[in-house]
Design goal:
This protein is of the alpha/beta class and 283 residues long. The chain is 29% helix and 24% strand. The model has no long low-confidence stretch (mean pLDDT 94).
Length: 283
Amino acid sequence: MIDIFQIIPQCPTIRIIDVGAMDVGKDIYAPLVEKGIASVLGFECVKAECERLNAMKRATHTYLPYAIGDGRERTFHECNFPMTSSLYEPNTELLAKFQNLENLTQVVRKESIQTHRLDDLPEAQDADFLKLDVQGAEVDVLNGAERVLAEAVVVHTEVEFVPMYKGQPLFAEVDQRMRQAGYLFHQFPGVAGRTFQPLVVNNDVNKMLSQILWADAVYVKDFMAFDKLSPAKLLKMAVILHVNYGSFDLALQALLAHDAQAGTALGQAYYDKLTTAPVTAAQ
């Protein structure tokens, strides 16, 4: 096991912005929080969920009840399962073709709401890591976040490959927008789907057989332009990639780019550890 903090003993705080911060289990950035090196600014427009998150009283976490988007007034579709609520209407005809989807996306209330651009919010300053889980509204958020995207170095976003919500941008449009912002696709930490009705696999209605419907996608600042990032941002990128994703090879590239600017030898020290110790898990 490799401990990057033996090489970087004083990591600056990594600032995380979480759009769609509803508690649905372990946060994807939990490894960074558990290391005590991150602060979280979360946005959750389902007010009851936002209040529940703030009630946890985590000193490094703050949550605001804003709907994040491109600044337009929109209709919010609140569903019977809060995690499926969206600025876009569920595509019931499509969802009904699959096991255990249409029944989880029943609209129980519609509300006209004002969306907020991340770039217009003074709280959303100097982000390092941006996480999006907004049920089809990813491009809307990105279109209101040019400054945030310029400041951040890693983006972790949910993407869809079929229109689970009516009119939503799909993965291709998210990918195009991210490339326009100076990012390159890095990895899919996980993909998900369902079986087509009426088939059920191993008595599990949530089991995917062949059709991928959505995934988490990770983007990083263009590794061909690391020289345009500050040493501090390169250091944070290396830590995020190492701790959160086990992307040791790209973390090394970030450290080498840091060294080229700062005159340090962190990359060599990291390389030595990578090549002399078994690589089994991120730390």
